[in-house]
Design brief:
Blueprint lengths: L9 E6 L6 H17 L4 E6 L5 H7 L4 E4 L10 H8 L9 H8 L1 H10 L7 E4 L7 H11 L3 E5 L9 E3 L5 H8 L6 E5 L4 E8 L5 E2 L3 E3 L8 H4 L7 E2 L6 H18 L4 E8 L5 E7 L9 H8 L4 H13 L2
Parallel strand pairs: 1-2, 1-3
Antiparallel strand pairs: 4-7, 5-6, 5-7, 8-9, 8-10, 8-12, 10-11, 12-13
Helix pairs in contact: 1-11
């Protein structure tokens, strides 16, 4: 299908599901549906993946492409991507393997290290593991304080705790493993928090960097869903060479995981000007005020055009 008639595609926007981010996903789905309609698509349906009739409706709909507006488990981890591959329905964003690696933070960190992208030092703990007092002391001795404790496979800061003293660490580990996840305990990197969107398939390019400004301990759930104007500075206030290096590393992370369409990598810029990657989001937030659309708008790509471009990338090749 050529670009000129892409708006004739019948699109299924997939949202909802069962993860902690269900409501966020539904908001993204509604926003993407409206944006695609504004971009000229004549047939766009919003499907809740948790609906008992979802598979029947998806297969009966004869859709040309699925626009995935899901976050967290079952939506961003390769699960829904595998189903769509089985059904031979083209879909937006990354394929199964890249989605799974991007969600499993311990795997993506290994890929980043292999690609030469700096990432925080840390330790991985098995699901539901309760370290002894000696092990707790060893972790603190090795990584220092403060620390971040997070589940490996969740998003939007669910289950994340900033630990400032050794006594807090056992409860933070238990909290992060509540859903049976591998737990990551990482050193806290101090500096400027940024995020770098990347767009493209075989030849991806970075969009303007967003600097995240907040008085909170970290970019937590409350801050993430406050108005963008309170927390987004575009372009980020970085030295020219640091800015270019962060964009270069974000593209490298996109390629290292095998991402497709768009991704968004989060970094801390240390006081020495070194970008340290925290994670790569394979399906970034997709409301009009989310980080990726906010960045794209800065270079003249409005939200409807961004959503249309994402569909084009899904149908490329």
């Amino acid at each position: 299908m050529v670009a000129d008639d892409i708006t004739n595609c019948k699109v299924a926007v997939l949202a909802g599901g069962w993860s902690d981010e269900r409501e966020i996903s539904l908001a993204s789905g509604k926003a993407c549906k409206e944006a695609l309609e504004k971009a000229g698509f004549s047939s766009v349906d919003l499907l809740d993946v948790a609906d008992p009739n979802f598979v029947r409706d998806l297969t009966a709909g004869s859709y040309d492409v699925a626009f995935i507006a899901m976050h967290g488990h079952y939506g961003e981890d390769g699960s829904i991507q595998g189903l769509l591959d089985i059904l031979h329905v083209p879909y937006t964003f990354s394929k199964v393997l890249a989605s799974a690696m991007g969600t499993a933070k311990e795997v993506s960190k290994a890929m980043f290290r292999k690609a030469g992208i700096p990432t925080p030092k840390g330790v991985e703990l098995p699901p539901n593991y309760q370290p002894s007092k000696d092990e707790i002391a060893q972790i603190v001795s090795t990584l220092g304080l403060p620390l971040f404790v997070k589940p490996s496979g969740n998003g939007s800061s669910y289950g994340v705790t900033k630990v400032t003293c050794e006594e807090q660490l056992p409860d933070a580990i238990e909290h992060a493993s509540a859903d049976g996840e591998i737990v990551l305990v990482e050193q806290c990197i101090e500096g400027t928090e940024i995020t770098v969107p990347v767009i493209g398939n075989s030849d991806p390019e970075a969009l303007p960097i967003v600097e995240i400004v907040t008085n909170a301990d970290f970019y937590d759930l409350k801050v993430k869903y406050e108005p963008a104007s309170l927390h987004h500075v575009i372009p980020a206030r970085l030295d020219k060479d640091v800015y270019a290096r962060a964009q270069e590393l974000a593209v490298l992370a996109h390629k290292a995981l095998g991402c497709r369409g768009v991704s968004r990598s989060d970094f801390i810029i240390t006081k020495d000007g070194e970008p340290v990657i925290l994670e790569t989001n394979t399906i970034p937030g997709m409301t009009e005020t989310s980080l990726l659309p906010d960045s794209a708008r800065h270079v003249g790509i409005e939200f409807p055009q961004l959503c249309k471009r994402i569909v084009e990338l899904a149908l490329e090749n």
